[in-house]
């Protein structure tokens, strides 16, 4: 093989290496170039280059810098993936400790359990002279209206005893909570948070939603949505 052909072949393989970005966590395959292969090609390129037209030092330096950059990218990607895995494991452990406990989550509805009560928090943006809660059943019928009186800006707790306006105990099930406050400019509907029991925990697959809590009668909520653990 003549000098020009050797240099051309080595250069083309080096170009192939520069266009490949190894995936983190994967072993070296037969069609991937590693550190030793890259250095062998570099030495072959230097040995077989045309002495009349030698490759410039800057070109060798650029190739080495690009190889170093690829190695660093692979190392960083692997470290990030490892940290993400450890974070997911920590989240799963934290969430599993919540099973059987009550958590406070943003919701406009809750589950009236066998204990015959539902409680939570109303987010009050500004002081109001009149704060009211309306309880509605699954058919949309009004069950009870609670007058919480005046409230300061912040969070105001509430509790429904599970009875309708006539004092009759309502059956367990899902009920909606509508909170309203009176202001000079009119009535404003406010957001609420409901306490619910954690039945189980689900750990999403890699790239999925992550850790979720399965709440009694309320379905799934993200672990990040939990505002308080009772």
TrEMBL record:
InterPro entries for this protein: FlgD, FlgD/Vpr_Ig-like, FLgD_Tudor
Gene3D superfamilies per record: 2.30.30.910, 2.60.40.4070
Ranges of compositional bias, category Polar residues: 1-25
Keyword Nucleus among UniProt keywords: no
Entry keyword Amino-acid biosynthesis: no
One Pfam family matching this protein: FlgD
Region described as Disordered: 1-32
Biological process, per Gene Ontology: bacterial-type flagellum organization
Keywords of this entry: Bacterial flagellum biogenesis, Cell projection, Cilium, Flagellum
Domain FlgD/Vpr Ig-like: 116-182
Residue ranges occupied by any FlgD Tudor-like domain in the UniProt entry: 91-227
Family: Belongs to the FlgD family.
Biological function: Required for flagellar hook formation. May act as a scaffolding protein.
Annotated protein name in UniProt: Basal-body rod modification protein FlgD
Source species taxonomy: Bacteria, Pseudomonadati, Pseudomonadota, Gammaproteobacteria, Pseudomonadales
């Amino acid at each position: 093989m003549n000098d020009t052909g050797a240099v051309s072949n080595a250069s083309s393989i080096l170009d192939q290496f520069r266009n490949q970005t190894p995936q983190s966590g994967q072993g070296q395959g037969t069609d991937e170039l590693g550190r030793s292969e890259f250095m062998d090609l570099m030495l072959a390129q230097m040995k077989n280059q045309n002495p009349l037209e030698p490759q410039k030092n800057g070109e060798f330096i650029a190739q080495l810098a690009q190889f170093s950059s690829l190695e660093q990218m692979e190392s960083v990607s692997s470290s990030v993936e490892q940290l993400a895995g450890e974070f997911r494991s920590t989240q799963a452990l934290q969430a599993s400790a919540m099973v059987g406990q009550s958590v406070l989550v943003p919701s406009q509805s809750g589950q009236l359990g066998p204990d015959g009560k539902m409680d939570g928090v109303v987010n009050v943006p500004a002081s109001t002279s009149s704060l009211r809660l309306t309880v509605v059943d699954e058919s949309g019928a009004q069950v009870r209206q609670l007058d919480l009186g005046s409230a300061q800006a912040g969070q105001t707790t509430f509790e429904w005893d599970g009875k309708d306006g006539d004092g009759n105990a309502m059956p367990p099930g899902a009920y909606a909570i509508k909170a309203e406050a009176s202001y000079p400019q009119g009535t404003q509907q406010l957001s609420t948070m409901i306490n619910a029991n954690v039945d189980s925990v689900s750990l999403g697959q890699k790239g999925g939603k992550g850790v979720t809590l399965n709440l009694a009668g309320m379905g799934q909520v993200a672990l990040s949505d939990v505002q308080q653990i009772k």
